[in-house]
Amino acid sequence: MDFKEKVAEIFISIETELSMEEALQLIEIPPSADMGDYAVPCFKFAKKYRKSPAAIANDLVEKIGQVNEFEKIESAGPYVNFFVNKEQFAEQVLNRAFEEKEDYGSTNIGEGKTVIVEFSSPNIAKPFHIGHIRSTLIGNAINNIYKYMGYNTVAINHLGDYGTQFGMLISAYMKWGTPEVVEAIEKDPIPELLKLYVRYNQEIEKHPEYQDEARYWFKELEDGNEEALKLWAWFRDVSLKEFNRVYDMFGIKFDSLAGESFYSDKMPAIMDELKEKGLLKDSEGAKIVELSEYGLTDALVEKSDGSTLYVTRDVAAAKYRKDTYDFYKNIYVVGAPQKLHFDQWRKIIDLMGYDWAYDCVHVMFGTVSLEDGTLATRKGRVVFLEDVLNKAIEKTTEIINQRNPNLEDREKVAKQVGIGAVIFQELFNNRIKDYVFSWDKTLSFEGETGPYVQYTYARTCSLLRKADITIDSDVDFSILTNTEAFNVIKKLEGFKTALINAHDKYEPFIVTRYIVGLAQEFNRFYHECPIITDRVEVKKARLLLTLIVNIVLKKGMELLGMEAPEKM
RNA sequence: GCAUCUGUAGCUCAGUAGGAUAGAGCAGUGCCCUCCUAAGGCAUGUGUCAGGGGUUCGAUUCCUCUCAGGUGCACCA
Fold it and tell me: Which of A130, A262, A309, A464 is the right S-S partner for A383, CB 3.0 to 4.6 Å?
């Protein structure tokens, strides 16, 4: 039993009508450590006893008396404050962490449940730019966290590999695809394909018939025209190769690349089903599902030319996923601007009679913009993700050359730290916040940053390397009751809570904030308390604490998708 | 116009599912490397929590209105 539960138990023994859950709900953590480790406010009991909360707190303290697990239980105004027995607390937390090692903080709440996490999802033949960083990193972290909570997860990269844009690309290639162009595409695919795409869009102004040609080629693609299919597959291939360079740098892997095209043959069945269930309505030659009575705008599900749209494809995708994976949750990590789309989509699934509609969640996030305005590929206002990573690595290399020129594996460490900084930065704040991309911020490595956490981790590694004794949990825990050590231990105790919280809210930043907080506490401890000392008992105890911090920092970084260098 | 998100220190942001004096980092200033990695630690100042009402013993947190900014609203995804 942990200490919080003990507090609840003590409370129930006096306030017998409280359930364990209610009692746990009541317990708070005081704003400052000198007020105690746990607190119970007594306002709620004022009515029952017809006394002031402060008087009730006093009475309670008297009734509770002495308890072994707590060194002090006292009232402070309307609160009953509990001070844990630090030695027992340290022993309990560190013993457990030492036993569980790399599994410390994990849970089995997801056992037997499958969760789908759709994220990243770039468009084929378009640049992989800074705007894609959010879905890619937030999604990856959520996927990792869910896995650690015991779920079976399926990471899906829902590639944007379908739609009229491919009709344009094919048509453009038919017109201007000289051998030189082919060579250029092979060499540097995305910019070359983009050029074709941009040129086509420009020429449509002069040749309106190009619009129809694009539609024609898309239709041919849908109908399985061999030539069109071959081109499409080629575009997809070369683009993926490019994307994979970035995924490799981030260390991100997907379980499925089933993108939009994958669902193209599943559309007729969905349209039939919608019709059968009486949800379809004609409107200006197109087909819609009316949603106005649910506070949404009507959803267009089929164009007047008979081809389907985004929502329709997403409905088909969701149904396919339910049938294939029988998901417990189907998570979409997609930007906030698409909220309406997902609300409509979910409502359509609901109207189709599927109760799992509400197991589908849209994990949205704010928009990234550039200092001179919004991202605009065609206007050249774009920052490539790969460039961001390379610059971060470059900057890290400079710092290493300056501070630690003899470091082994300099290149590898520069990558770990540079990329780590980018990941950490992205996952540091609440998802919903918009932000303006700034090189200065991305390349700042001091204070609450990735390198700070990695540096702290490397520091723990260095200490553990210097340990000339075996570390075990058979130590004198009274050595770890001073403020600095105890603050670290309290922080360690909160790891699992942080993870569960991040899981509940789909918020990786809770983990990010947690590890930076742990690093801060450890650094204070480190500066205040010599770890490698001649006093063996002290060394043993402090090294145990260092080891646990080492494990938790590494696990935290791993969940966020960061690597942890042992030296830097 | 309707919908939706955001508004906390000079800047960037936390604030644990209403509670005890609202916290970090950056930027500024001043300390600490004969001492385990100074990408570090310590000290120091700043707040009408956008504004008005309401609910409550208690509101930065919940409700409502107003203001400011972002985003989305039919044949793109």
Answer: A130
